């Protein structure tokens, strides 16, 4: 729970992206269709732009702040509302002052410009209400309760991120995959997003992967897909837990990006009945501490299996097999 | 001298009223019969001293004869006429048309506004102004009003009606009890200005007779008219628990040489027997008509200002239009509404005028927002306002219903269309996309041929928070009353909230092909409530039994046009992996929010202040659930930072205040319930000045674990 040494704004500050456009050098700017913005998910997908090599993007941002903020008699003065865009991976922070356009002082609107080169993948957009409080200028008295995601690459405005899946022949593929020519698939978590490399040189792999339906191929497909998914989840969990930022007193921080999401989704199954922060601390303590890491492995496997829906896939396979057998006998 | 009416017709009517022949008048005022005849035909006017004698003969004062704005009070007095029972003994125990609707102020608002729109005077392009006044009368004011409507004459009829064990009888009984037990009466007045008014003869074809004398007569003057059944006016009487409506109309074209203060009252009661006389049902308040056999039937009369004042029927200006005064207004639907409201809420009982006020405003905003929108060079069609009074004193100020407030995004859409500022594709929020959808019109007369294709205009814009449910399409015709309000089916969940408006018929603009035909076709497809388009008898008779399928076609086209504008096309899976791709996603918006363990104590409340010397003093309140007292929790204080590790702060003092104690820096709880601790930080461990940063306090499980 947070407390501040000065009065803050109660009530919600809300934020919307009203328009987005991109511009490439020496080309006219492109106004993005409203479908590139999702008001429901609060995501802008700049990848929907048809201009391929755009270098700047401009967002029209509007914010609604509580009317208390600008009423006379408030404990602050010189209210300003700023849009703040942060990209944690490039450590970029872009701000832009919004202007109040209504008489009520509740609606603020402005534009925020960003450079493509400043952003790697996804950036967070929020709005802060800044004021002079008790003679100290520039204090944050309020912040938007929900932020927006500005996705530079994606062409679908969703919060959900998909891991990458690449079908490639290992034998003639990149050198690092050539060591695994006899493996059907390999999970690599070192990139911007975890990637599953599927070995198309493996005999029958592509056929099984594309099989559907209730026949034997479909059953094998369901089994294999859940097995692969379990592999992926175990790998991404270890990868995420292995690279945590630690505070001075040893408290681990939730990482940013997909790693954080993986931990949030899986920790509930790994260390049940604890808050997420507590669970993270517990897992980290066992990993770096003297004892307990080995004992935790079954729980990680369990969490990955649940996430990959292995039990359901297996059950369906078993039943499907029985059905096929009955049909053969009939 | 300003005279209300030509002398001739006025005198003729007065003679009729007092039942005096021209010869008798000639004898009384000592002139020839030919002179009287000359006055009446307008060939001559009487000399001043003769006028004096005429006034005496008519038993009235000089001013009345000079101004001639009212009839003389001589002759037969204003009173109630009850239609006698049918000679065949038939009985009507209520008005069937009134049962077609709920007695509900929102239905009333819909029907009356629709009538006013239909009767709008279009010559100046000005909107018709409709004003709803809720007026609660109590005590002395109520007594005076009862006197004005000749309550004592009516009361036996109410007594006879309430005794009947049927629906109408029970409603009347409730209305009478409400009036006598609570000493109050709610009047709901509906005024329109810049409308045609009740023109025409008292008995013959015309607006007056259509409203006052007839049932199911829809006297509509324009092709875009909303109403078509003549049922709507029944809601006026249905809204009155006493079945009583008084009318004052200012006419747009003179009748009997006059326009202002044409007054009549109509009472709708079931069949009854009073003083041995059977009464068929309806009764009228008016002046007995000497032209009718026995001079019993009453007709509208031209009232003076005092009379309309006492009847609460004074109109604010001489602009044409009609005032309906619904006596004993009630609102059935509001009983079902707001059931969540606290019981025994004395301030607002079910028929409270405040609640009726709110519901009126809401109904007007929902159904007529579009008619209240102007744009381009066109003024709105309608202005509506609602006010509430009690004994003449204002309870809720008169306020115009503002479509921008009640329906912001739809209003914006329509305004953009009228202003011509629509776009093809939506890029910015606040924009309005316009497109057209086809409506294939059938030929009249049951042939299976098409007459032509009407292009309805579809407007789509993003929804505002203030709107009600998003992702809907409302449809309307030329009178811009909301006919249909439906959800758009089959949209993906991720679609940005929007509102759509479908303008058909003459609403689609001047250039739209076959607008008038579409107007007729869709009007035929509306039921009496005018709240949807579908199969109706009229549609089957005028067109063909399958004509309604063309409306389904319009709906289909509309929905797919909306989808094309707002829904993202489904992307084919661009990456491989078959079904694997679906399982490998993270960060979907909060599929399930996991609650923290139920047994774990949580920090409920934190009260912090800065002490002199720069230390934080925090008092934390912890909720310890049942079975949670075994937890050992360590309060941890840190500075709040934007990102990265937070600098920690050491405690200088940490004590349990209530229900807990501190052992080795951890809290031990004595029992479940609420526990309180107090901590004071050590300012020497502060990384920044205390006043410059926020403080984060967390509870951490501390079983055998220390900061390492």
From TrEMBL, chain A:
This is Uncharacterized protein. It comes from Streptomyces alanosinicus.
């Amino acid at each position: 729970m947070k407390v501040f040494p000065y009065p803050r704004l109660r009530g919600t500050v809300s934020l919307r992206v009203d328009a987005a456009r991109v511009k490439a050098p020496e080309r006219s700017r492109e106004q993005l269709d409203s479908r590139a913005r999702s008001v429901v998910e609060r995501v802008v997908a700049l990848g929907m732009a048809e201009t391929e090599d755009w270098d700047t993007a401009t967002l029209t941002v509007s914010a609604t702040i509580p009317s208390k903020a600008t009423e006379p008699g408030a404990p602050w003065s010189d209210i300003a509302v700023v849009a703040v865009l942060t990209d944690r991976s490039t450590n970029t922070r872009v701000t832009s002052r919004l202007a109040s356009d209504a008489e009520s002082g509740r609606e603020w609107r402005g534009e925020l410009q960003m450079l493509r080169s400043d952003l790697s993948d996804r950036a967070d957009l929020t709005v802060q209400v800044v004021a002079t409080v008790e003679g100290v200028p520039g204090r944050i008295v309020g912040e938007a309760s929900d932020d927006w995601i500005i996705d530079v690459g994606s062409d679908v405005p969703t919060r959900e991120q998909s891991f990458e899946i690449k079908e490639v022949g290992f034998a003639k593929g990149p050198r690092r995959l050539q060591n695994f020519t006899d493996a059907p698939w390999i999970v690599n978590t070192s990139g911007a997003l975890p990637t599953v490399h599927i070995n198309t040189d493996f005999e029958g792999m592509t056929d099984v992967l594309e099989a559907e339906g209730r026949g034997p191929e479909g059953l094998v497909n369901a089994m294999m897909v859940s097995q692969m998914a379990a592999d992926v989840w175990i790998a991404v969990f270890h990868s995420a837990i292995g690279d945590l930022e630690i505070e001075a007193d040893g408290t681990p921080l939730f990482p940013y990006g997909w790693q954080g999401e993986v931990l949030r989704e899986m920790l509930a199954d790994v260390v049940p009945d604890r808050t997420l922060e507590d669970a993270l601390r517990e897992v980290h303590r066992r990993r770096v501490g003297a004892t307990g890491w080995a004992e935790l492995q079954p729980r990680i496997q369990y969490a990955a299996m649940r996430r990959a829906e292995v039990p359901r896939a297996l059950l369906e396979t078993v039943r499907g097999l029985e059905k096929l057998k009955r049909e053969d006998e009939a | 001298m300003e005279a209300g009416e030509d002398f001739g017709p006025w005198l003729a009517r007065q003679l009729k009223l007092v039942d005096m022949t021209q010869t008798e008048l000639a004898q009384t005022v000592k002139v020839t019969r030919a002179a009287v005849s000359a006055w009446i035909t307008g060939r001559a006017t009487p000399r001043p001293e003769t006028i004096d004698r005429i006034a005496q003969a008519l038993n009235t004062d000089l001013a009345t004869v000079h101004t001639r704005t009212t009839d003389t009070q001589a002759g037969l007095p204003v009173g109630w006429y009850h239609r006698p029972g049918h000679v065949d003994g038939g009985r009507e125990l209520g008005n069937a048309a009134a049962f077609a609707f709920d007695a509900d102020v929102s239905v009333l608002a819909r029907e009356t506004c629709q009538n006013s729109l239909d009767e709008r005077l279009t010559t100046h392009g000005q909107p018709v102004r409709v004003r709803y006044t809720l007026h609660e009368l109590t005590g002395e004011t109520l007594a005076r009003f009862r006197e004005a409507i000749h309550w004592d004459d009516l009361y036996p009829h109410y007594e006879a009606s309430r005794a009947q064990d049927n629906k109408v009888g029970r409603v009347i009984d409730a209305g009478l009890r409400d009036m006598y037990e609570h000493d109050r009466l709610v009047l709901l007045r509906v005024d329109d200005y810049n409308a045609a008014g009740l023109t025409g003869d008292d008995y013959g074809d015309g607006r007056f007779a259509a409203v006052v004398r007839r049932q199911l007569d829809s006297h509509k003057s324009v092709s875009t008219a909303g109403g078509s059944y003549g049922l709507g006016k029944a809601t006026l009487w249905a809204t009155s628990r006493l079945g009583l409506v008084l009318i004052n109309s200012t006419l747009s074209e003179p009748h009997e040489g006059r326009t202002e203060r044409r007054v009549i009252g109509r009472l709708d009661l079931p069949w009854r027997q009073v003083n041995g006389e059977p009464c068929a049902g309806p009764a009228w308040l008016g002046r007995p008509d000497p032209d009718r056999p026995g001079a019993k039937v009453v007709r509208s009369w031209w009232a003076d200002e005092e009379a309309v004042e006492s009847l609460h029927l004074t109109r604010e200006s001489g602009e044409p239009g009609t005032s309906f005064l619904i006596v004993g207004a009630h609102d059935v639907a509001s009983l079902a509404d707001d059931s969540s409201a606290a019981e025994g809420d004395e301030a607002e009982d079910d028929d409270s005028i405040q609640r009726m006020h709110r519901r009126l405003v809401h109904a007007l905003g929902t159904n007529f927002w579009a008619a209240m929108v102007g744009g381009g060079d066109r003024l709105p069609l309608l202005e509506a306002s609602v006010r509430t009074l009690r004994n003449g004193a204002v309870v809720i100020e008169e306020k115009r219903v503002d479509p921008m407030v009640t329906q912001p995004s739809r209003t914006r859409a329509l305004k953009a269309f009228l202003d011509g500022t629509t776009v093809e594709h939506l890029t910015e929020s606040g924009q309005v996309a316009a497109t057209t959808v086809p409506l294939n019109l059938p030929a009249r007369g049951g042939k299976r041929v098409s007459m032509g294709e009407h292009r309805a205009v579809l407007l789509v814009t993003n929804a505002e928070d203030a709107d009600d449910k998003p992702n809907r399409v409302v449809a309307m015709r030329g009178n811009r009353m909301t006919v249909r309000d439906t959800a758009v089916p089959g949209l993906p969940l991720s679609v940005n909230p929007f509102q759509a408006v479908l303008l058909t018929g003459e609403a689609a603009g001047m250039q739209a092909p076959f607008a008038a035909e579409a107007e007729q076709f869709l009007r035929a497809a509306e039921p009496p409530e005018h709240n949807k388009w579908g199969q109706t008898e009229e549609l089957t008779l005028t067109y063909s039994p399958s004509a309604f399928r063309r409306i389904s076609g319009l709906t289909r086209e509309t929905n797919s046009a909306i989808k094309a504008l707002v829904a993202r096309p489904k992307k084919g899976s661009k990456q491989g992996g078959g079904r694997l791709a679906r399982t490998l996603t993270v960060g979907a918006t909060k599929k399930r929010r996991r609650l923290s363990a139920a047994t774990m104590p949580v920090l409920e409340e934190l009260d912090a202040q800065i002490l002199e010397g720069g230390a934080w003093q925090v008092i934390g309140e912890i909720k310890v659930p049942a079975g949670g007292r075994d937890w050992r929790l360590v309060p941890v204080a840190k500075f709040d930072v934007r990102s990265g590790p937070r600098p920690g702060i050491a405690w200088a003092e940490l004590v349990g205040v209530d229900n807990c104690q501190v052992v080795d820096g951890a809290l031990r709880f004595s029992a479940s319930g609420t526990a309180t601790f107090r901590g004071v930080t050590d300012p020497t461990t502060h990384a920044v000045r205390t006043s410059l940063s926020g403080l984060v306090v967390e509870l951490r499980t501390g079983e055998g674990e220390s900061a390492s």
